[in-house]
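Dear support,

Our group has been running a series of protein-ligand predictions, and this particular one with pyridoxal-5'-phosphate is the one our PI (initials K.S.) wants archived with full inputs and outputs. We had some confusion internally about which version of the output was final, so please treat the block below as the authoritative record. The input we submitted was:
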Amino acid sequence: MGMGDQIRKQLAAAALKRQLERVSGEAQAQLDGAAATRGASRQTASWDARASFEAMPLYQQVKLLKQMGETLQVASPFFRVHEGMAGATTTIGAREYINYANYNYLGFASDPGVMASAQAAIGRYGTSVSASRMVAGERPIQRELERALADFYETDDCVAFVSGHATNVTVIGALFGHGDLIVHDALAHNSIVQGAQLSGAKRLAFAHNDWRELDALLARVRGEYRNVLVVIEGLYSMDGDYPELERFVEIRRRHGVFLMVDEAHSFGVLGETGRGIREQCGVPSSEVDLWMGTMSKTLAGCGGFIAGCQPLIDMLRHLAPGFLYSVGLAPALAAASLAALEALKAQPERVAMLKARGQQFLHEARAAGLDTGTSAGYAVVPVITRSSLKAAQWANALFDEGINVQPIFYPAVEERAARLRFFICSTHESGQITRTVMALARIARR
Ligand SMILES: Cc1ncc(COP(=O)(O)O)c(C=O)c1O
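Confirmed final output from the archive:
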């Protein structure tokens, strides 16, 4: 591509980005406005906007993203169809790719033993439990999974939900309310933010991984609130770095706050035996009030869980709307996650292999001059491109070379933080990683 072409594309990208910022702002304002006026008898929104989906700022946002791809002549990297099991490699359009776009971290989602357990559960219980557990009753496999997770976390009990995202939303939304404060890391997952918003509690954020800022914030405002919840993640899914958990538990004790740790990406990944951030940082399980995890990553299934003390789990099991008013976890998914958990305990060498591959990726990428941000080199390594256009172009160039990786761009991250995000699995081979980094370094030099 000539220099003139490149400059024209950058100008078009900048113009579209400004439009996107405007409609994103309008979409947010409309959502905030709707929340603020909910229940009010008089609303000021125009009838037109409510009668037509096309007129909604949200739809304008979707249209602009599509238009951006067309103007910049970059094929959309989204909604690609995988034709079989996706792990370290995958088949898309009859071609095999090295795959970095999913978080089957220890390879259990395509493990024969895990698949056999899921199939056996279908044979015994069918494909769905077809009702809420409290109302219509349980299946032994659901309780077995919860018991095994509670034992893994050394907590009294555990409760499983049908979605990881919904777990954060419903748990935070149900436990906290007006008069409470929720403080989260600035890079917290959307589900944490949504849960905090739903709760009606005051919501504040502290700079990423900055426990000093959190400490100072709590010193200023702790006294103004009844219950305070601090939410952090075990391994951050965009940056691949992790918090100093020992600092956060010390703050928890000193300020008398609840601490919740979302282990979506650290479960089975951090710590010598995959016990997560507490093993990595040498912190006893009892120093954290809510251990949250998802079954969709290491655990080869789908759903989320909370492990903690009995009163907490009793409250959630009886009152969390996302549990009470939602169907119970499908038997096949519970069985798959239970089998994956047993396999994780029996095969810590998978955790060691994942770490080796993550470190290899990080070190080779750094040596090639690529910007890997603050990644610690475990399951997530970003390569920061600093422009959405470049992220899309690099991802498409890699795709042409048989490598599938997801670009992350504005508005998911700030424009200057646009990136490719590599999910590393224990099943990636060393040669695949070297080939990927070499291809990427070549593309980056173009
Ligand atoms: C930190 C974090 N929490 C929660 C979730 C939601 O989990 P799920 O995709 O299993 O619904 C994700 C999703 O990737 C996540 O990254």
